[in-house]
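Quick one:
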Amino acid sequence: MKIVDHYLRSCHLRLISLCLGAFVAIFLVIDFLEKIGKFSRGGATLAQMGTFFACRLPEVLVQVIPLAVLMGTILSIGALSRQSEITAMRSGGMSLLRIGRPLLMVGAAISIGTFAMEEFLVPPASGKASYLEEVAIGKKNPNTFFRQDNIWYRDRQAILQARHFEPATRSLRGVTLWRLGDDLQPQTRLDADRALFTDRGWEFQKVSERQVAGGTAIAPRSLDTMTVPLSLKTDDLKVVGKYSENMGYFALRRYCAKLEQGGYETTAYRALLQSKLSLPCTSLVMVFLGIPFALKSSRSSGIAVGVGLSLGIGFSYYILSAILISFGQAGTLPPLLAAWAANVLCAGAGVWLAMTVER
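Output:
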């Protein structure tokens, strides 16, 4: 039985690797064709472009691994079935679950590896790629940077901190601004509930202003609004909104906790947080779905049909998952349901197909 398990695993992994390599190559070629014009206009060097696409590789792998697993499963089981090897195994007393066990173990190992990659490799690599694209090549303001729970910005004689940026309203929430003297010592501190970007600058709302003398804060005065001219633009902050999608699970969970402590809405981030757990599990679900699907369709179909079925199922899953997560981010569905519903539906389809094949 160990020989059979090893044989099944090797066939499965070989086809997954071939499919993964093909998908990654296609993805990177399309990404290159999309960005080459922008990079040329920005004067990017070959080293910068090579580093950018190398940093994009972990994120691309995380996105295409489930589709490669599904296609590798359907093609490997289909090939074994057409050669009557599955029939021989079942004639020897092996159930469908026993045949699929080594493949499911491969799917589980890939899911764990995907989570680890998403947690440890994707955030720093994506941050480096974003810096190259937006700052080194795109020439956006390099003074803006993102931490897991704060936005910081240095503008001449001022330092700004904000808890949260809302791209839809072009506003910052939970803002603190320190104005510095020539000796870089704070002279004034502004605290505002919100800062809205306007043509005249950033309009601070519900402001508390404190004058600082000799390191001691003087009694504050309250203002409804105050316009503060800063060179910070919303285009510089859009990088922040994108970066939250590439944060690891634990970093994003800490970020949500910080926002909730400040009284800010975290529904959109909670749906994204749940997806950090559900999406790595997709590889296991795809193996579970692919085995009975391949057995039902492989006898009367070839490789081309297997590839077409894999692409059809995979893209349908991605579309469904994206729609459900967007509903969760909008608050229409609970975050837990929005993130896991697609996996549950695919697993249910796999159970139903397995029962029909077993019969």
